[in-house]
Amino acid sequence: MAGQNAFTGVAYGYARVSLDSQIKGESLDVQQARIEAICMAEGLTLASVFVERGVSGSKPLAARPEGSKLLAKARRGDTIVILRLDRGFRSLEDSLQVAGALNARGVRLYLGDMKGFIAGDAAGELHFSMLASFAQFERRRIAERIRESKEQLRAKGRYCGGQAPFGYTLTPTGETTRQGVPAMRIEPIEEIHAIARDLMSKGYSSRLASGHFRAKGFQTSHHAINGLFNRLRGAQ
User: What is the CATH number of domain 4-142?
Assistant: First the structure.
């Protein structure tokens, strides 16, 4: 394993961009500028930045076109700089696997949201494992809170965001949200529900029902109709 004195000072950056990240202000230009700033602060020479465009974060780093090139390029003593855990890795398991492989190769890994080097020696790998576990725990807690909040809103017939599902419409509640926008509730469209209940009683599948709805002027997919059928069954 490489020791501290064996590091070359050569760094490679990795940036991944998607529509969501652009909306959040993390465009490629911003990511590359921050990677350059990290390298300058750490006394590293940035050789190049591997830029992943339009590739899903659900893919492991090694399975991404630029990610695989990055991992093949880095040599013992080099450093890889990534701004955030979710920019570089699919999951906690993916990140730990890559960090372990880099650690064995003597390649350092710097993660901006982990505040430093988290692979390249045993201490770095331990640090990474601990921080990544806490990050994963926090993401799960946030997801749980969001899910619980939406369940409470649904129980009150309140709007949870997105388009109203087929067979429902959005109606203002007369209140406003914390963001100052009108609060909405989802209400059933009785004509559509009556047709759906009739078709269900006759044993129509969602695919057969889609043709029936189209004949009555309702253009929708059988997936949307299946969702309506499931909601009506759940209400019984």
Answer: 3.40.50.1390
